[in-house]
Amino acid sequence: MANKILSIADLEEAASHSLSVSARDFFNSGATNQVTLYDNYAAYRKYRLLPRVLRDVSLVDTGISLFDRDIEFPLCVSPAGMQAMAHPEGEMATSRACAKMGVNMGVSSYANHSVEEITVAGKEVGPINHVMQLYAMNDKAKQERIVRRAEAAGCKAIFLTADSPVLGVRWNEWRNGFMPPVGLGYPMYERTSTEIQQQSHDDGFSSTNSDSHSWATEIPWLRRVTKMEIWIKGVLTPEDVETAIEYGCDGVIISNHGGRQLDETPATIDALPACVKAARGRIKIHIDGGIRSGVDIFKALALGAECCWVGRPALWGLAYDGQQGVELMLRILFDDFKRCMQLTGCRSISDISSASLAIVNAYGPLARL
Ligand SMILES: Cc1cc2nc3c(=O)[nH]c(=O)nc-3n(C[C@H](O)[C@H](O)[C@H](O)COP(=O)(O)O)c2cc1C
Ligand SMILES: CCCCCCCCCCC(=O)C(=O)O
Question: Record-annotated residues binding FMN (predicted)?
Fold first, then answer.
């Protein structure tokens, strides 16, 4: 079965056969008109690779160091909620697959398994670092419990999701009357399945989530309650990179939540260069959104990202074949990335730069960056 899946597009297609329409649309869709969802992927297509030839690429080092540990290649799995809707083992299977393939994982606050279960599952397979995704919440005592549980479970960072004061407009959820399947809870939110079923998805989010969040309320508060690194997930502008630096944050994820929050925000690969320029090396810059091949990872690094994250590909892997499906997804991206490095003449991550990229110009020859 596995040998028919050669690309992330193959995996998406295969996954769609094992998901209900409502679950598939929940995972795959973006907000309103799906403009950003599409752009995230399409924007990568305007770059072309400029290979340097006759270089010895027999030994290629794809690794980077992240949270004081080497990972196999510059890719991790983004926090995404409700993974047990894709496979009963949900986030535990994702964690095991990430550990097996030597990459890190983000744990969503809306995970169907607890951070304790997820971290243990991964660590039983091999070395792995986790980060805990967090929303600003109305109930600060509960928010603090999530942070403390994550730290006690060994998470290395908080990824504070900053793009979601309210949920994005998701027509698919309204059309399908989306509800998580009966039996699935949100243990980090201390919500049982029975409680979840009593509210619409949208109402559930707005009842727990704080829309009065701000840099001044969230970051100093987080610094007081944890020693973990603090990263801001959902940054798209150089101005917010600067603010993250002012507040002493450790990193930012250039992200538009996979096109699920505000539609018609820029593709993340288009937002990246100005953010990298503003950062001037003072804060770590990672990226997610629309990354579907090793070539996309290479392009993001060439434009200045230190590491990439993928959301939906892991969900498709899970839906296709649980832990093995997520491993397959990571293997496809690893093999493609390594091959791309070899074919562009890069022996290590530090060899990857904008010199390897050109931009398609509709009116003339390719333009060098
Ligand atoms: C089904 C689903 C659930 C998600 N849940 C969360 C979440 O709970 N918290 C969060 O910060 N981001 C969440 N995200 C966004 C991802 O972390 C990530 O930013 C996005 O999926 C990256 O885009 P990609 O799916 O194109 O790779 C979710 C994404 C999906 C598809
Ligand atoms: C406590 C009940 C809340 C129910 C709302 C869950 C919303 C999950 C949002 C996950 C996410 O970020 C996404 O993109 O989807």
Answer: 79-81, 108, 133, 161, 233, 255, 288-292, 311-312
Helical H segments across the chain, by residue range: 8-16, 21-28, 35-42, 90-101, 115-125, 140-152, 171-176, 193-197, 201-208, 215-225, 238-246, 268-279, 294-302, 312-344
pLDDT at 209 over 70: yes
pTM for the model: 0.98
Q: How far apart are CA 72 and CA 61, in angstroms?
A: 9
- Active-site residue, 257 included: yes
DSSP letter, residue 349: G
CA of 81 to the centre of ligand 2 (A): 7
Interatomic CA distance for residues 309 and 288, integer angstroms: 5
ipTM of the complex: 0.98
**Residue 1 above 60 pLDDT?**
no
What does each C-alpha distance from 28 to 31, 240, 296 come to in angstroms?
10, 28, 19
Here the tokens at position 28 are 């795959």
Residue 231, H or E segment: strand 229-235
* Residues above pLDDT 70, as percent of the chain: 99
Give me the catalytic one of 87, 113, 213, 257: 257
Neighbours of 247 (CB within 10 A): 16
* Ligand 1 and 233: CB distance under 6 A: yes
| CATH superfamily assigned to domain 8-368 | Aldolase class I (3.20.20.70)
- Residues 78 and 288: beta-carbon distance below 8 Å: yes
